[in-house]
Amino acid sequence: MTVFSSPEKPPYFAIILSSRLILDDITHRIMTDKLLGLAKGEPGYLGFEQSSGEVEFLVTYWQTQQTAEAWMKHSMQCRVLSIGESFWYEEYSLKLCEILSNTEFKTPSLSIYTARFPRIVTPRGILTVLHESQARLLHDYVNQEKVFLAPWEPLRDEGYYTFDTCLLRVREMRRDFLEGSGVVLCLLSPNEDKMLAYSNYSNIIRGVFQACNLGYSLRENEQGKGIMQEALSAGIEYLKTELDIERIQASYMPRNAKSAAVLNNLGFEKEGLARKYLKINGVWEDHILTARIMR
Q1: How far apart are CA 293 and CA 295, in angstroms?
Q2: pLDDT digits (tens), the chain, 295 positions
Q3: Claim: this prediction has a pTM higher than 0.70
Q4: Cα(167)–Cα(33) distance, rounded to whole angstroms?
Q5: Which of 7, 59, 201, 224 has the highest CB neighbour count under 10 A?
Q6: Where does the chain have alpha helices with state H?
Q7: CA torsion, points 19, 22, 23, 29, in degrees to nearest 10?
Q8: What would the DSSP string read from start to end of 178-196?
Q9: Could you give the 3-state DSSP secondary structure of residue 30?
Q10: Which whole-number Å values give the CA distances from 96 to 5, 7, 45, 71, in the listed order?
């Protein structure tokens, strides 16, 4: 997500949708994304800004009052709001505003990385939270490794493998990071043109727990090289030193010897066996529970 910078001099116009959500599910996010995709093809469209939180904002910018009003009354806009009244919104407000002046600043750095998001250099790659411009790397990864990863993951429908879903996932990764609820660190090749591995530190809980869960995957042709251990070792160190996470929990199916070896080498200790714990590839599978304690 970027800050909108208008190619037009003021005045220009904005349609602002502010809302409080009862339910922020995947359908709401997909519909919002499709709404933005539609707006981009409408006459007079200039750009958009979006933010989430207790109150969410979706702002689209338009060249003229007429084009802004047309978008405000667009049948798809009205349809999404109508559906939202039944399923998503506690309340919302849709406003048309005129922008009379604006002041802008942008740092001279052109890097897609900012100080808010980690960029960790490892011996064989770059460990980072993906930027929206890198969604293609995630798309390539999930599609190229689809058959290899299937026995170790939940059943996926075909929508999971589309570029739009991957872009949505990247946006969620960045939002979760900013909200402090999770950190998805992807290991990229040194020139950052290929995704090698994926690690997800999810369900971060603060206070008396200071803990999270860990899931991960690795390309088939990178197996047996120590790359997964390299990525996880750097990620765990980041979680410990920068986010004060003191307990990381991970589980694996008893037959997954490679995953067991990786966790053991990283200092995870077995804590028990959970029967029929997760539904993997359509089957409820037992999992061995492990944790690394860093208190």
Answers
A1: 6
A2: 678 888 888 999 999 999 999 987 888 888 898 999 999 999 999 999 998 878 999 999 999 999 999 999 999 999 999 999 999 999 999 999 999 998 888 776 655 555 689 999 999 999 999 999 999 999 999 999 999 999 999 999 999 999 989 998 998 999 899 889 999 999 999 999 999 999 999 999 999 999 999 999 999 999 999 999 999 999 999 999 999 999 999 999 999 999 999 999 999 999 999 999 999 999 999 999 999 999 9
A3: yes
A4: 10
A5: 201
A6: 26-39, 65-72, 75-87, 135-144, 146-149, 163-179, 227-243, 257-265
A7: 0
A8: HHTS-EEEEEEPTTSSSEE
A9: helix
A10: 18, 19, 14, 10
Q: How far is CA 35 from CA 6, 154, 241, 260, in A?
A: 20, 29, 40, 44
Relative orientation angle of helices 257-265 and 227-243, to the nearest 10 degrees? 50
Pairing of strands 183-188, 125-128: antiparallel
Q: Tell me which H or E stretch contains 48.
A: strand 45-51
CA distance 164 to 136: 10
Quote the CA–CA distance of 199 and 193 in Å, as a whole number.
Answer: 18
Sequence letter at residue 75:
S
**Residue ranges of domains in the chain, CATH in brackets:** 12-99 (3.30.70.100), 119-293 (3.40.630.30)
Find all residues with CB under 8 Å of 39, minimum gap 6, and list them. 45, 48, 60, 71
| Structural tokens at position 26 | 């995947």
- Beta-carbon contacts of 216 under 8 Å, excluding residues fewer than 6 positions away, are 197, 198, 199, 200, 228, 231, 232, 250
How would you write 121-165 as a 3-class SS string? EECCEEEECCCHHHHHHHHHHHHHCHHHHHHHCCCCCHHHHCHHH
For the record, the structure tokens of 174 come out as 């960045």
